[in-house]
């Protein structure tokens, strides 16, 4: 492994890309600690404890803890992700966006531009809502003293907060695009992953403190580590798992040249939808508890809050069903069997034993449905497992979130994607892959 890192550092371009990426990620983490003008950081951190199990808690997860501190990067990259999802969904039903998706590079540039405009609009709306929300929070007790979240003497808070939060979101979006273009890996995904990984040091310190105070034994920690290794292994297996459909292309004679005749395959991923089903399902599951926080005196909403708490079986059941549903829903959006069949027919490709056209589309759709089923059940299990762990082994949510759910899937997925890009850079320069054994090959003898 040390030799592989040495190989990475010996390639100037790859070294510059990794250094550039790390530098911008450090800027992202520094911006997550600069509060919005007029906000009392201690008061907002204390007041946010009652909202940790609501939709605001999900936002805080993706912003790397910046939302809890009401910093410049409190919105994180979520407005950009929301705009991208909306544009992707519109590409299924709106003919204008369908045409843009088929126009190649020019169409992608136009879609990127529209996504940026949508990011500004969504972040402005969310920033105004956050400003109003911060002003509506009642004073809280901090170190025996009653404090307001927003300083009462600070005038024009809403305008300054909206400008600050929107600017922070656009700046993060620009940093993510720069990482994708000039760094290594997908910038947006890396920013989300770094925000999640930033919680690990505090989690480790908490576990050490529990062991020192005899609240948890070393054997329990060893068991937890073993469970984490097994879960991560299964997540990697499902993330990388594919079902290959063989495809052959007929030979074509154009002039004096013969084209085609090769064999290839269509990779059908077991988890085509990625982490999106869990994000969609989690957003819906947080809505009842988020609404219930505004009606704390109502007995009806108190009952709703109990049903949708993490330790209730009803929450696990509904959460799992929603994940299975959204897995099929998002897979149908991300992968169109009819379009794949038409492209194959256009270029002279066919699946052995299957008639081109409609029969090929039905064959691909049938396999996609079967492959997605175990993937959807696995996503549901990974999402619910942290809550089961909290009940069976008395683990707090900050630690249990790394045993499954959104956090683990994002970390594993982004890490694998980044490692694959690093490995491709190594292979292009006649080095062995990053995760394979071997010595430097190529021009060594010369």
The CATH homologous superfamily of the largest domain is named SecY subunit domain
The end-to-end span amounts to 26 Å
Largest sheet: 3 strands, antiparallel
Can you tell me the overall shape?
A: globular
Your description of this structure?
By secondary structure, the protein is mainly α. It folds into two domains: 1-198, Preprotein translocase SecY subunit; 199-403, Preprotein translocase SecY subunit (Orthogonal Bundle). Helix content is 66%, strand content 7%. The protein has 18 helices and seven strands. It has helices at residues 2-9, 12-31, 41-47, 55-62, 78-93, 95-101, 104-136, 157-182, 187-197, 200-212, 218-240, 276-292, 299-307, 313-334, 337-346, 358-393, 397-400, 405-428; strands spanning 140-142, 145-147, 242-249, 252-254, 257-259, 263-269, 349-350. The protein has a three-stranded antiparallel sheet with strand order 6-3-7. Helix 12 (276-292) packs across helix 14 (313-334) and helix 14 (313-334) packs antiparallel against helix 16 (358-393).
Topology overview:
Elements lengths: L1 H8 L2 H20 L9 H7 L7 H8 L15 H16 L1 H7 L2 H33 L3 E3 L2 E3 L9 H26 L4 H11 L2 H13 L5 H23 L1 E8 L2 E3 L2 E3 L3 E7 L6 H17 L6 H9 L5 H22 L2 H10 L2 E2 L7 H36 L3 H4 L4 H24 L18
Antiparallel strand pairs: 1-2, 3-6, 3-7, 4-5
Helix pairs in contact: 2-8, 2-9, 5-6, 5-7, 6-7, 7-8, 8-9, 9-18, 11-16, 11-18, 12-13, 12-14, 14-16, 15-16
């Amino acid at each position: 492994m040390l030799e592989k890192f040495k190989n990475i550092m010996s390639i100037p371009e790859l070294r510059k890309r990794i250094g550039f990426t790390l530098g911008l990620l450090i800027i992202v983490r520094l911006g997550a600690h600069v509060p919005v003008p007029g906000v009392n950081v201690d008061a907002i951190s204390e007041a946010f404890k009652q909202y940790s199990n609501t939709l605001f808690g999900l936002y805080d997860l993706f912003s790397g803890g910046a939302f809890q501190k009401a910093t410049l990067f409190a919105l994180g990259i979520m407005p950009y992700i929301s705009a991208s999802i909306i544009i992707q969904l519109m590409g299924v039903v709106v003919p204008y966006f369908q045409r843009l998706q088929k126009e190649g590079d020019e169409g992608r540039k136009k879609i990127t531009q529209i996504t940026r405009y949508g990011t500004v609009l969504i972040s402005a709306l969310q920033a105004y809502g956050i400003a109003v929300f911060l002003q509506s929070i009642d004073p809280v007790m901090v170190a025996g003293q009653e404090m307001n979240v927003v300083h009462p003497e600070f005038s024009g808070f809403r305008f300054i907060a909206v400008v600050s939060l929107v600017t922070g979101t656009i700046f993060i979006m620009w940093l993510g695009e720069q990482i994708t273009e000039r760094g290594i890996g997908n910038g947006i995904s890396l920013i989300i992953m770094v925000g999640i990984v930033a919680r690990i040091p505090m989690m480790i310190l908490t576990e050490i403190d529990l062991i020192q105070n005899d609240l948890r034994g070393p054997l329990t920690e060893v068991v937890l580590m073993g469970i984490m290794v097994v879960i991560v292994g299964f997540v990697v297996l499902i993330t990388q798992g594919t079902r290959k459909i063989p495809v052959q292309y007929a030979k074509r004679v154009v002039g004096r040249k013969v084209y085609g005749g090769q064999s290839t395959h269509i990779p059908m991923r077991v988890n085509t939808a990625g982490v999106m089903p869990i994000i969609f399902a989690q957003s819906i599951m947080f809505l009842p508890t988020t609404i219930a926080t505004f009606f704390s005196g109502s007995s009806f909403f108190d009952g709703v809050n109990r049903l949708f708490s993490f330790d209730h079986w009803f929450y696990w059941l509904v959460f799992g069903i929603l994940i299975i549903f959204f897995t099929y829903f998002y897979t149908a959006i991300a992968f169109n069997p009819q379009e794949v069949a038409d492209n194959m027919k256009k270029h002279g490709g066919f699946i052995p034993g299957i008639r081109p056209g409609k029969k090929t589309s039905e064959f691909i759709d049938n396999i996609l449905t079967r492959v997605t089923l175990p993937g959807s059940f696995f996503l549901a299990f990974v999402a619910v497992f942290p809550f089961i762990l909290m009940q069976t082994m008395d683990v707090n949510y900050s630690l249990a979130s790394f045993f499954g759910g959104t956090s683990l899937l994002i970390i594993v997925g982004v890490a694998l994607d980044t490692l694959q890009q690093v490995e491709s850079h190594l292979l292009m320069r006649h080095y062995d892959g990053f995760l394979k054994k071997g010595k430097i090959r190529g021009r060594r003898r010369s």
